User: What shape does this take?
Amino acid sequence: MSVVETLVISNIVLWVLVVILSLLVFALTRQIGILHERVAPAGALQPTTGPKVGELTKQMPLTALNGSIHNIGGAEANGLATFILFISPTCPVCKSLVPTAKSLIKSEKGRMRLLFGSDGEDLEQHKNYVKDLKIENYPYFVSQALGMSYQVSKLPFAVLIGADGTLQSKGLVNTREHLESLIESMDSGIATVQEYVNSQLDSTDKAYEASEAEQTS
Assistant: This one.
């Protein structure tokens, strides 16, 4: 066999392999897309303790770190919902989530306000923390009572209170998706993403059963 024939055969084999690999990549891409559609969205993890979603919250007058006084909980005369993000200077995840929360609430400006909650005795540390996070323009509360009222045990934790004073959603949050799920819960009237997924599955099952009944009739 000549050198030319060997090169031709090797090129043919290589092209066959390239085509096979391309088909495999296409098949894998399709499977990943299918899996992505089937995977349920991850919402904020909602604890079972503390006030329940749908309950009316009690109004708490609190003084922010900058000396301003705010009412948290209860009906808001300005018609704004209240989004409280509980953070701490000792929480690494909190620091990375704060810019995300600011960006998200900015897009919701006009219907909700953003507050920050924390606790601890070193006020100077909190002042430096607020400055480092560039959240001087947001009310920041160092209050153990605020965290206890919503049974905050782990951070970062978020609470969303409707303008009418009812607790709309709450839960542990680590990503923008978690934060968005709290707002989605308020808009949809469904407490958790898991509850939403179950309702969608029930709707799909009912539609399938109805289709089967029509075919057999």
Observations:
- The longest strand covers residues 112-118.
